[in-house]
Amino acid sequence: MELESNLLLSQAKQLYHITPLWEITTGYSGDSIFEAESGLRRRILRVAEFSNKKEAHVEFETRWTEYLALRMEGIAKPVRSVNNRLYEVAGAGGKTYILSLQEKAPGKIVDINDPKEFNEELFFQLGMLMGRMHKLTMCYEGNQRCPEFKWNGPHFWRRNIAIPDEAVRQGEKRFLEELEQLDADYREVTEQAKRHTLVFGDRFPFLYLVRNYGLSYYAAFPGCSSETEPSAATIAFLTDEVEEEQIPVVFRLELSNGKVAEAIAEVTGTETAMLHSCHTLTREEMERGETYLSLMRQNLVQLDKALNG
After folding, report:
1. Where are the alpha helices (DSSP H) in the chain?
2. Is the pTM for the entire model greater than 0.85?
């Protein structure tokens, strides 16, 4: 493998204009990982033996990571080759390999024995980061749907494994009952509503909700768009829809500044309200013990105002 590694690293130098430094580790997947530098920047080079399945995995992973890195801080993004590709296929020693390069993430390994490093603040920040990643991924156009997954109301997450602990089993039973009641309450509100259209002066991560309960919507931005300002035409269109359909509430998201929703509400004489995506909790919400169920109950109150007010 030493000869093959040397040949592959030589090709990587030309493809990415890097200087390989040393091998870091061999991951569980069998990939070889090298640290490299490009000028003053450190990079991570991954070398994987080629297969169609592996190539599909690398292509999805690099495209998804690049998508995230362009929209949020803290993500080490892929580095494209001189051919403007997210990965390259190279041969050495009669075999074929996949080469991919990414930035080296800043920071250091956390010392789990040091309470100054391994603490609640770290977990809070990680939770915020993961919540943001999840929120963006929900709207990623390149998502690959799992053929075994099918939306089925409140039962979509049910597991097919044995749960030996009776307390856990009873807890799951109660939770399912609460989800079923939540679903029934949403159906009652939406099916008997005076109107079935929602207006968002914000992004729109609620496609699953409107489809499941037969609603329509208008929004300032498509999905989880990275745009920050809607066009004047969009504002005018949303304002007209609110006035024509006599919609009493313009929605905004949690953690949004709400400026677009407020602008539309001011012109139309309506009110604004928050509809929580349940993707990211603030510290205050965590301290209050908010859950998916409690947030969705709050959302139902706001939906009722918008649909029946």
Report:
1. 2-16, 52-69, 120-138, 166-191, 207-212, 232-244, 259-268, 283-288, 292-308
2. no
CB–CB of 106/17 below 8 Å? no
State how far the Cα of 42 lies from the Cα of 46, in Å rounded to an integer: 13
Q: Could you give the CA distance from residue 1 to residue 199 in angstroms, rounded to a whole number?
A: 60
The whole-angstrom separation of Cα 255 and Cα 81 is: 37
Please state the three-class secondary structure of 204-253 as a single string: CCCHHHHHHCCCEEEECCCCCCCCCCCCHHHHHHHHHHHHHCCCCEEEEC
Q: Which letter does DSSP use for residue 30 in this model?
A: S
**C-alpha closest to that of 261 among 219, 301, 228:** 219
Digit-coded pLDDT (tens) for 209-254: 898 899 999 998 875 555 567 888 889 999 999 999 999 999 999 8
